[in-house]
Amino acid sequence: MKTLQRVASIKKIEQGNIVTPQGFKTAGVHAGLRYSKKDLGIILSDIPASVAAVYTQSVIQAAPLDVTKDSIQVEGKLQGIIVNSACANACTGKQGLKDAYEMRNLAASKFDLAPHYLAVASTGVIGEYMKMDKIKRGIELLEPSPADKDAIDFEQAILTTDTVTKNCAYSVEIDGVTVTMGGAAKGSGMIHPNMATMLGFITTDAAIESADLQLALSTITDQTFNQITVDGDTSTNDMVLVLANGKAGNQALSPTHPQWDTFIQLLKQTSESLAKQIAKDGEGATKLIECNVFGTESKHAAQIIAKTIIGSNLVKTAAYGADANWGRIIAAMGRSGIDFNPQQVTIAFGDLVVLEDGEPVDFSEEIAKAYLEQDLLVINVTLKEGSETGTAWGCDLTYDYVKINASYRS
Amino acid sequence: MKTLQRVASIKKIEQGNIVTPQGFKTAGVHAGLRYSKKDLGIILSDIPASVAAVYTQSVIQAAPLDVTKDSIQVEGKLQGIIVNSACANACTGKQGLKDAYEMRNLAASKFDLAPHYLAVASTGVIGEYMKMDKIKRGIELLEPSPADKDAIDFEQAILTTDTVTKNCAYSVEIDGVTVTMGGAAKGSGMIHPNMATMLGFITTDAAIESADLQLALSTITDQTFNQITVDGDTSTNDMVLVLANGKAGNQALSPTHPQWDTFIQLLKQTSESLAKQIAKDGEGATKLIECNVFGTESKHAAQIIAKTIIGSNLVKTAAYGADANWGRIIAAMGRSGIDFNPQQVTIAFGDLVVLEDGEPVDFSEEIAKAYLEQDLLVINVTLKEGSETGTAWGCDLTYDYVKINASYRS
């Protein structure tokens, strides 16, 4: 798979979201877990949908993940996802698990579904118990519809310290019919996926079996959700779920389908869009940082180097200060665990080369500063070890990151 | 070796430093690499000394490290260390290497030593060339003495963003004679050793061959210098050097010497003292954080967990905000790469238990906040996987860290 290639026929749908694909409804309400913001949402498919999931690789996994895995293993199908913010229901012991099952059952009862057709997701503070009376009341308030306004409500309901909602939608022709995919996500801090990174929900009307959908998701996760970092911390609640309800009417997709690569690109583009939106909205961030690494022996090496650079507090503070301090970039590379020849390293901010084949370049600080003051910073690193490439996304480290996290819980 | 045991007979020498052991001189001067602060220093032993060294494990190693390694490999002896701050002489290509050798030769000439008896160390900005005219003039100004005031000058000359000098000295009886050890260090940012962490210089009048001294240093490095982190970044210039000139007159130390463990403890206590001073003076830090992990299967596992907790930006910001957010501690543990049973984890701030066997404890927020507002925060984590222990040290993440690093280079 040529991973940096775009399939020209994939169309971005402006203002698209999780209900842009056929056969999905959603809602978001204020259940009272938070003072005034919306805090409970649901996505429903009209019919049971194929499902793919990836979860945090943390040893500590929150109760909702157990419940979701339990739901999926029954039939490999889901018809809905019930999500709350404010409380992560993580490290809450037996009571937490009981609460997560109860949340699933309450939603199943409200929407007349078998409980195992529902996934549960939570995000918020770790170690606090769910306020189940509020969850119960909130579920009663949910009135899902396919209207965009309800998708916006859902997107808002899943946020924590996020400052903006995250969404996207794309479509492409497969088997002569239009296949559409939409996404919603939340994530701002505790973002350093070894797998997922946050909550990510993707809907599509493509026809595809769950096993193939899982294969597709696993194929692109390492290049998208796993390549963003805000602060190096991996959440206990990370989860990405993809629902595919087949309403588009294409031939079922699988690796032998002639347009399998097209579908992979559709999923990759949707995932990358959500991942970048999350990185850009990192806690306290003022800019998105993209790091492209070229010329490594393996894709893995390029991805590790890119992510180590993006994750460096010193690179992140220099980005905030618009300081062309490339020494911190090569220092981060040096500790990435990947071996390379320092005398063959070239580093550029955008097109501005600052280190060439290991020797400092006498560049214009003025031009560098002007470039670094923009809200997108692209760091391009070239080695001469091979022909592979990799990209990672992150954000700068600012006073506001400290402010947000020195007082998050209270 | 019982690593947490202290040898009762080791005495701390108040106001002790690198010239407290017999037969060492030092000096620090303003060479002009910086506007007004001292920026060039030297340590000299009266006679060639046994030497042990550990270096950064970064793929990128600065020129002075190459020169130091080259010096040591000739005879395994050193008589002095010439050190500058302000410029790291890293990523400076062929010119940088030439400059580092020239710095060595100028010092050798001034003090009438064979060049291979001198080590070179640099710290400061990466990617800038050395101002050799200033180095040359500075070396001419160096007038080493065994006086404490010159040790203070040296300690100041090696600092970068550090706010305080770091020093210590201890003594112990070995073979009926007093063996003394002293240390000086710098390090404040780019501190996340995989080996060293910063510049650390230890002097002792103990008699010991270089190979045994290296064994001793390698034994304790993983429990001291390698267990501190300020910001997760590993420098290109990290180096710890130990010089032992034998002036104390003890029988040469080796693993078969009956007091070998005593010497190991002396070196460990000196190293731990310097390491903790560095962690406490982390860029922008307001407090030292110590994390003790008990009850793991291996010491390695305990050290990894402790260091992952100490390294978490979210734990560090919560510490700054005096927020008893233990969820961030267990989240960091979960991503440490060490497997454990979450239902057997107990977490305490000092003596205040907040999570017991995986279940949240209803603790007093007032008492927790009062504890967390102190300038030493001890996080105690207990697992029930085995009987090993490990400790790591770090500091909180504050507005000032961002301030310092958003404008360090300019």
UniProtKB/TrEMBL annotation, chains A, B:
Record's keyword terms, sorted: Acyltransferase, Amino-acid biosynthesis, Arginine biosynthesis, Autocatalytic cleavage, Cytoplasm, Multifunctional enzyme, Transferase
Site feature: Involved in the stabilization of negative charge on the oxyanion by the formation of the oxyanion hole: T123, G124
SUPFAM superfamilies: DmpA/ArgJ-like
Site residues, Cleavage: A196, T197
EC number: 2.3.1.35, 2.3.1.1
Record flagged with keyword Cell wall biogenesis/degradation: no
UniProt KW Amino-acid biosynthesis keyword: yes
BP terms from Gene Ontology: L-arginine biosynthetic process; ornithine biosynthetic process
Protein localization: Cytoplasm
Residue numbers annotated as active site: T197
Pathway involvement of the protein, from the record: Amino-acid biosynthesis; L-arginine biosynthesis; L-ornithine and N-acetyl-L-glutamate from L-glutamate and N(2)-acetyl-L-ornithine (cyclic): step 1/1; Amino-acid biosynthesis; L-arginine biosynthesis; N(2)-acetyl-L-ornithine from L-glutamate: step 1/4
Job description of the protein: Catalyzes two activities which are involved in the cyclic version of arginine biosynthesis: the synthesis of N-acetylglutamate from glutamate and acetyl-CoA as the acetyl donor, and of ornithine by transacetylation between N(2)-acetylornithine and glutamate.
Assembly and oligomerization: Heterotetramer of two alpha and two beta chains.
Family: Belongs to the ArgJ family.
Name of this protein: Arginine biosynthesis bifunctional protein ArgJ
Species name: Peribacillus loiseleuriae
